[in-house]
């Protein structure tokens, strides 16, 4: 097993920057004891804290997580092989290379992009990846060579394609490429004639800001989107699609506030999202944004974990489980696979923080079962698995096997 882990990278960079543990802890806004546990690998920093530490060390989060992952299991799938083509497509977005054959008709391209979007939501990046460069190239040629409604439709589907490219690049750890893809979503959405697609593009950009710890800008963007969605809705009502987008924006704000150490604001945003979900009464995926009663609960757990209140997060799962006559809350069937996998990954990290190593391992296995590609490339899976291996005195073959599968 590799001895490399997030904590070790933090320690090495701290020494390069000639900072003491106390000095770095002060700059990052964490306690000395917590930083010592992170550096030793006994505990993993939650996403918001990892962002704070990265900023204090003047590096990107990917430097601490070791992304992109190009060793171990990843070499078997060769999913990184499409990255050069994706870079080329995103670079030449408004001046593309010539195609060797004419692009297929837009309805055909739209149907294939629908399939790609479904793969994205299920976290099936490995089969999705090879489809993207060629599909984006064809849609670009159609969008730039047509006029009127046909042109707008092509740009609408192109925006969905760039969103898939953003997700793929982000999950594989190519964060600069992911940011470029977000800008391309904006470019295509602005030409799609669809105001809600423009809202989606801005939502994605705000998400990137949150990941980078740019909370004030992200907050302004998301609060502006709240108002824009209401402005776009028919007077006197919010149709389901507007409710879903509004709810997704509110959940993103809840995550932002939790990471910005504003728990009361996070609770308020969750309460507002719960109202939207109450009107919908079901889980939806308008504009590929998962929203509904289940996703509100998933985000409630995530914000507690991001706030460092892992004990309360696990208590909430037990409380909701009682409603189902179970020990803990179980996700209902039909939830988007990537979202479900992410939930299990978050809960695994929380269990590890509370000392429940068996439970953490169980949730990692659940994340892999729901969406193998998503779990395999997720940095929290690697850090949690690596910590489980280091703490496993009995040398459990199942734990070691999972860590090998994850590329640890």
Structure description:
The structure is a single chain. The protein is an all-alpha fold and 408 residues long. The chain has helices spanning 6-16, 21-28, 32-40, 47-56, 61-65, 74-77, 83-91, 106-122, 125-128, 132-145, 148-172, 175-189, 195-211, 215-232, 240-259, 263-280, 293-306, 310-323, 337-353, 357-370, 372-377, 379-391, 397-405. The chain is globular. 48% of the residues are buried.
Q: How are the SSEs placed, and which strands pair?
A:
Elements: H1 6-16, H2 21-28, H3 32-40, H4 47-56, H5 61-65, H6 74-77, H7 83-91, H8 106-122, H9 125-128, H10 132-145, H11 148-172, H12 175-189, H13 195-211, H14 215-232, H15 240-259, H16 263-280, H17 293-306, H18 310-323, H19 337-353, H20 357-370, H21 372-377, H22 379-391, H23 397-405
Q: Which radius of gyration do the C-alpha atoms yield?
A: 21 Å
**Unreliable parts:** none
Structural class assignment:
mainly alpha
User: How many beta strands in the DSSP annotation?
Assistant: 0
Q: What's the number of helices?
A: 23
- Biggest sheet overview: none
Order of helices and strands: HHHHHHHHHHHHHHHHHHHHHHH
Percentage beta strand: under 5%
Average pLDDT: 91
Terminal CA distance: 6 Å
- Shape type: globular
Measured as a percent range, the helix fraction is over 70%
């Amino acid at each position: 097993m590799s001895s490399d882990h997030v904590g070790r990278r933090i320690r090495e960079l701290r020494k390069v920057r000639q900072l003491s543990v106390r000095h770095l802890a002060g700059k990052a806004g964490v306690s000395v004891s917590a930083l010592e546990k992170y550096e030793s690998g006994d505990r993993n920093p939650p996403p918001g804290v990892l962002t704070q530490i990265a900023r204090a060390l003047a590096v990107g989060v990917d430097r601490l997580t070791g992304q992109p992952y190009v060793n171990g299991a990843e070499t078997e799938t060769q999913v990184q092989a499409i990255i050069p083509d994706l870079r080329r497509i995103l670079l030449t977005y408004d001046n593309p290379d010539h195609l060797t054959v004419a692009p297929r008709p837009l309805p055909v391209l739209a149907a294939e992009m629908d399939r790609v979007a479904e793969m994205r939501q299920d976290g099936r990046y490995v089969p999705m990846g090879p489809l993207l460069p060629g599909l984006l190239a064809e849609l670009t040629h159609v969008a730039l060579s047509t006029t009127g409604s046909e042109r707008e439709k092509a740009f609408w589907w192109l925006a969905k394609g760039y969103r898939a490219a953003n997700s793929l690049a982000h999950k594989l750890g190519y964060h600069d490429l992911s940011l470029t893809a977000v800008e391309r979503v904006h470019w295509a959405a602005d030409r799609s004639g669809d105001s809600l697609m423009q809202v989606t593009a801005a939502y994605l950009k705000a998400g990137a800001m949150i990941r980078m710890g740019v909370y004030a800008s992200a907050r302004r963007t998301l609060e502006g989107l709240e108002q824009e969605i209401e402005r776009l809705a028919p007077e006197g009502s919010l149709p389901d699609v507007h409710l879903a987008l509004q709810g997704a924006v509110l959940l993103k704000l809840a995550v932002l506030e939790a990471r910005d150490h504003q728990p009361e604001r996070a609770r308020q945003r969750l309460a507002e999202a719960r109202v939207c979900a109450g009107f919908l009464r079901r889980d939806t995926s308008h504009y590929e944004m998962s929203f509904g009663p289940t996703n509100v609960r998933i985000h409630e757990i995530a914000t507690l974990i991001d706030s460092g209140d892992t004990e309360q997060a696990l208590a909430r799962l037990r409380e909701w489980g009682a409603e189902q006559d179970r020990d803990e809350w179980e996700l209902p069937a039909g939830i988007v696979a990537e979202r479900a996998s992410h939930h299990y990954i978050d809960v695994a990290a929380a269990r590890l923080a509370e000392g429940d190593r068996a439970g953490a391992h169980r949730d990692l296995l659940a994340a892999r079962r729901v969406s193998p590609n998503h779990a395999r490339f997720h940095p929290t899976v690697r850090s949690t698995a690596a910590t489980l291996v280091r703490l496993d005195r009995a040398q459990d073959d199942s734990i070691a096997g999972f860590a090998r599968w994850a590329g640890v």
